D-beta-D-heptose 7-phosphate kinase (Paraburkholderia hiiakae), 334 residues
Amino acid sequence: MSISQTPQPEATPVTALATAIAPEVRVVPREKLATSRVLVVGDVMLDRYWFGDVNRISPEAPVPVVHVQRKEDRLGGAANVARNAAALGAHAGLLCVVGHDEPGERIVELLDESNVNAYLERDPTLPTTIKLRVLSRQQQLLRVDFENTPAHEILLASLARFDALLPTHDVILLSDYAKGGLTHVTQMIAKARAAGKAVLVDPKGDDWERYRGASLITPNRAELREVVGTWKSEEDLHARVTKLRRELQFDALLLTRSEEGMTLFSEDGVVHAAADAREVYDVSGAGDTVIATVAVMLGAGLPLVEGVALANRAAGIVVGKLGTATVNYDELFQ
């Protein structure tokens, strides 16, 4: 989409206040990315997909009858973030809570297949979160969620494990899906920053006080509006984000804007990366890919702006895939 086609309420061109990030980015050697050590902490889930055909309507209710012919399990939530980091060749660790059940065991299997180092706290009373999607001809017909909140004692054990893992990782990535796994997120951020680590947060909800002091926060437009309200122009957006950043002591804020690309706000100014002109197939999990790519690049020693440019390219690739997916090294730098 061209800048002149930007929908309301963002009528002012993005470039009015921002410096454009050039689409050309340098190739980062695999060996450099392999030195990046990212610890992902947050809410994990199992994304279950049931694929089938619809040939009739149920006689019991006016709903389609799906004849399921194929099933597929994928990592979701923070587990998908860690999988994205590992796909780029980084050392990816995942600290999370899962249940003592079949979905929990399936997550363990998938993490092992994805080369993610799993640091799991097991809660025997917790049903592992499942997002079950029923699809026909690549169209989602229904989603069914199974979820609950981890026990307080398990979360305290997870915090203690975080303390032990902190020294062996360069970047801390907190992936919040509001399932209770980041109850102690404020303490985690404070501990990580005190240790000199970069802390990236994928936020949820309207209480961002809990993320105070993060290095980078990566909301989408809807998530940011929930916190700062609706902006009337790019100037208004800039003012609201600047106020928010300074109040909550965020070093930077990366706003993902779907078909408009993404905009980075920091004390150094505003930079914008226009979206790659690719066919959008499925946007689910694109935010996971963005924050994972930025984290990997920061861990490899790249400047934040370069990390954002590469994350923008990765997002353009992953939205062309069905469901939660990853972008590997060859795809990113081809």
Remarks:
- The first strand starts at residue 19 and ends at 20.
